[in-house]
Design a protein that fits this description.
This protein has 221 residues and is an all-alpha fold. The protein is 77% helix and 0% strand. The longest helix is centred in the last third of the chain and has 41 residues.
């Protein structure tokens, strides 16, 4: 199981570069219940991401079992994901990968939890690293419990940096908002500049791994 982490780490780093989620957490800090609402946003996102990961993994497993050729089909799926990475890299060149969508109406923890649950479906480029990570977990052919453990660790590691938002608000109150706005501006600029390159790099690596296995029977990792 531990050998998966070096493979998943670069996917996690790209996946966690999500200014859309960070911007929504900042929106929550300006509400009447900043700590509770920002925690609810992040909790909703994390729970939905984990459940969606399980659902997607089950779908891939069913496809694999139906074709009765699990190892090759995993690499064909990996190749398709790699191609999607390359397509997303081209689409992210306009610098709009980080466009935020804000919820409307009064913010409550329940509303924030529900909206946080759908944030992971906003912006296709941000979903691709997660899909690739799930495919890598399936390729490892671990027991179900181990696969769920790796997926849970991935999701907790994804959420960890965003915990800084409610922590800062709880610690210094409204003074945290200008700091968070500056961080968000830096993150947005970073994503708009780096996301096309990172998606392109991951797309090349994932496609190369899949093609090498299809052609030679041996993966890169």
């Amino acid at each position: 199981m531990s050998e998966l982490f070096p493979v998943l780490l670069p996917l996690l780093l790209v996946d966690a570069l999500n200014p859309v989620l960070f911007a929504l957490l900042i929106v929550a800090t300006g509400s009447s219940r900043p700590v509770a609402n920002s925690i609810a946003f992040l909790s909703g996102h994390t729970v939905a991401y984990f459940v969606a990961g399980i659902a997607f993994a089950i779908g891939l497993e069913q496809l694999t079992n139906r074709l009765q050729n699990p190892q090759p089909i995993d690499f064909f799926i990996e190749l398709a994901i790699g191609v999607l990475f390359l397509w997303a890299a081209l689409g992210a060149r306009d610098g709009k990968a980080s466009e935020p969508r804000e919820p409307e109406g009064d913010l409550t923890p329940a509303v924030c939890f529900g909206y946080g649950a759908i944030v992971n479906f906003i912006g296709v480029p941000f979903a691709l690293p997660y899909v690739a990570a799930i495919d890598q977990i399936l390729k490892a052919d671990l027991p179900v419990e181990s696969s769920l453990t790796v997926l849970a660790i991935y999701n907790l590691a994804y959420a960890a940096p965003f915990v800084a938002v409610p922590v800062l608000v709880a610690a210094i109150g409204d003074s945290a908002r200008p700091v968070l706005e500056k961080i968000n501006n830096v993150l947005t600029t970073l994503v708009d500049r780096l996301m096309p390159f990172l998606l392109l790099l991951l797309g090349i690596l994932i496609s190369t791994d899949a093609l090498k296995f299809i052609l030679t029977g041996e993966p890169l990792w």
